Amino acid sequence: MISYSIISAAIAALTTTVVAANHHPTHSQMTSRQTDFPTVTGHHPNLRTYQNTTSSTQAFGKGSSSSDDSCEDPEVLCGMTIPAGKTFNLEKDLVCTTATAGKGNTAVAITIEEGATLNCNGHHVTQLNDEVGKAVECTDDPVTVTGCGLAWGASGVELKSGARFENCRVSGWQYGLLIAPPADGYADEIKIDNCEVTLNRYGLYAFAQDELDVLDFSIEIENSYFHHNYDGIYASVLPSTSKVKMEDVKSNFNIFDGIRLTLDGSELTMDDMEASYNGNDGINLRAPTSAPLSTSAAKVILQGANSVIQNKADGFRGGRMDVVVSRGATLNAYNNTRYGVRMAASSSFTVKKGGKVNSCSSGDSDIYQGGPTGSNAFFPISGKHYTCDSVKDDDEFECENECPVCL
What we know:
The chain is mainly β. The chain contains 4 helices and 30 strands. It has helices spanning 4-15, 27-32, 145-148, 388-391, and strands at residues 54-55, 80-82, 87-89, 94-96, 108-112, 117-119, 124-127, 155-159, 164-166, 169-171, 175-179, 190-193, 196-198, 202-206, 219-227, 231-238, 243-252, 259-263, 267-271, 283-286, 298-303, 305-307, 316-318, 321-325, 330-336, 341-344, 348-351, 356-361, 367-370, 383-386. It has a 15-stranded parallel β-sheet that branches. A 12-stranded mixed β-sheet has the order 2-5-8-11-14-16-18-20-23-26-29-30. A 3-stranded parallel β-sheet has the order 22-25-28, with no helix packed on it. Mean pLDDT is 75; it is low at 18-68 and 371-407.
């Protein structure tokens, strides 16, 4: 039986170690630095106490589903695969340890093949390392299990084209959730729903296998919580054919960025999104560092109530892209250490009628647009500054100065 107190103690420790440095902190640095970040409030999934857990060295359960295309009693173990088009229900926690067979530097606990569905029914897919938070500092690339001090493998769950992943808790991996499309990409949308991903180096990690380092896939994430990872959600270059939708997703209390995506003409929609209390940026949306492959800028659409609050650098940061705060939508971007909203000079930021941006910061301004054209420079060298008061008189922005006292 795995004690829940160990998991909760590790999360409590990491909550006090969020840092704003651009380098990867050592384990001793993470355990020694303190912050005054408050506890997240509001709706989010809670870590479920480990119960009915059996070592995965032996098969410990069978999948079950009322669907006709469900798997027929597959063996449940670390390294398992859900066949293409099949549905599988996990009935107990899957725990990978040093004693589990099949370990290796590229090992994946569960692979969801094309069009397959995994429903964890609230159970965990976890790696039991010597230290519960060990995976958070795993910076080896490619990963070496022994070098990082991991128990069994690199990835918790890999999702392929059209995969569905539901009702699951994933922890203890370098890549909690992994998406690695081949050169021709994935044709069908990947869906993640009602999941909690914590204590990983990357909560969700998407990277390309082809030489151009371009990801060609679309994904929808709903009602999920990424927290106490190093980076919450991370993806390399997403081209114009890619669409990303996040609805009721939270990425809070991560050591570095809450969300970090590189967009090259792709479309991103965020609805009721929160990325707060992170050690660097809340949401960091970059343009490619090399010449853009797309002739059009990425499009980012904000709907509903969105928050990027009390991050240690910028709340919302965008490169070459067009950002639209939709009618009736809100972006709360206050109490960030540097800027509430920071956009590259080549970007546009439009607030539709009825939309609002609430921002204050302890940096130079609330909303900042500047830097050389196309630049993702860490510190913009020129540009236009806005404050909540001045934004009211600018046609491009609408902002209400109704934020708490700035730090």
